[in-house]
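Researcher: Going back to the complex we discussed earlier. I've cleaned up the inputs and rechecked each line, so this should be the final set. Can you rerun the prediction on the complete assembly and write out the structure?
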Amino acid sequence: MSFREERAAERRLNIVKAAAKLFSEKGYHDATIEEIARELKYTKGSIYYYINSKQDLLFQCHDLAMNLLLENLQKIKDSGLPPDLMLKEVIKGHIETLMSEFNLITVTLGSDYELEEKYSEIIIGKRDRYENIIAGIIRDGIKRGVFREVPVKVVINLIMGAANWIGRWYSEDGPMTMQEISQFYADYLVEPLLSQNPDHFGTKRAFTTCPEDAKI
Amino acid sequence: MSFREERAAERRLNIVKAAAKLFSEKGYHDATIEEIARELKYTKGSIYYYINSKQDLLFQCHDLAMNLLLENLQKIKDSGLPPDLMLKEVIKGHIETLMSEFNLITVTLGSDYELEEKYSEIIIGKRDRYENIIAGIIRDGIKRGVFREVPVKVVINLIMGAANWIGRWYSEDGPMTMQEISQFYADYLVEPLLSQNPDHFGTKRAFTTCPEDAKI
DNA sequence: TTATAATTTGACTCATGGGTTGAACTTTGA
DNA sequence: TCAAAGTTCAACCCATGAGTCAAATTATAA
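Model: Rerun complete. Updated structure for the full complex:
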């Protein structure tokens, strides 16, 4: 890649990030190309030198977000952890990717119906791949007797729903840090899957991550 | 209320429902007033005889949805059930209201940022009331020793996130009925709250609602 | 029946915003 | 230095869709 191409690629990435910011703040429709341009001190005309259409920009947000999530998931899958710990890492990783790339992922979570068919096919494909990898982890846990038998797809949707919702309410000013929250979610959401409780007498529980100042 | 007024009120309700349908299918922006009119065999002009603005229509969707949810919640709160069972009923009721008034509630869940300030204040107020009632139930459970100590608001968001996500993936053709799903969610999401496991030896679990054909 | 009020309509205005274009300007490499 | 390629921009076109309005139609009640 030549210097010029590289610079153009970087600019395209910046445009996608700026678009993600505005899409996530105001929604796909209310964010205008002119605003996106202004954000980067361009004019609308220049933006169109780098992109094909607004729709394309939306697709690239989706695509980038899914790539980040998949990349993170693959790493965890390759870690060789036991199923329960691996699933907890999956949940923590999902939440932390979600929150560190907030704009990008808010777009993916909120505006899939805005994508035209030819684009949404691709994104749905990646989303399916993501879910299938997680399903594999859970099925492995069941096979090994770590997890009890459950409707796997339903459980994945339950977990993803809980996690994806965090972007709607999390505030940095709250009493819990992002890490505390993601750990709490991981423990809370994996516990009902375990075929045996961590403590057979039911007094001590798997997780005690609730910080003092967030109690009750 | 005179006959004429009553008829007008009914028509206004129909318009709100038709709007909810289109808003939930295509999003607030992509649904046009003309389409909403066409749905009811009106013309755009007639619609404006009954409504003030598109924004107002969106608000009425939100408002109607929140009223349904609050009404349902209040009934459960007054039932006098013990905290764990009451919370399960709350989750089941939330999910079933959500799904039976799918369009209306999809609008509330998906397009809050589209609401202008003067409207969103009202809706956020009702949402807070809703969450506070649930928070009361959980705090009561903690006080009575049925639930362990947890960050209540975080748990509510976790539960609401999981439940609200159902609208994104549920299909009538799936292997589980709505009732099975809502029961499964209720059991799954309440279990980690219990201060003692239902069975101290960890072999039999609180819930066995996974139907045979949905297993794994 | 008929005057009055309620309702419906379609043609209209108007603002917005996506996308285009061609000319101007800048960078680069020989 | 200078031509060719890369980049920027302002002005423009055009489709869309919210909201208006005055005239036409219909229902109601005296």
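Model: Worth noting: Chain A is about 70% helix and 0% strand.
Researcher: Good, that matches what I expected from the previous run.
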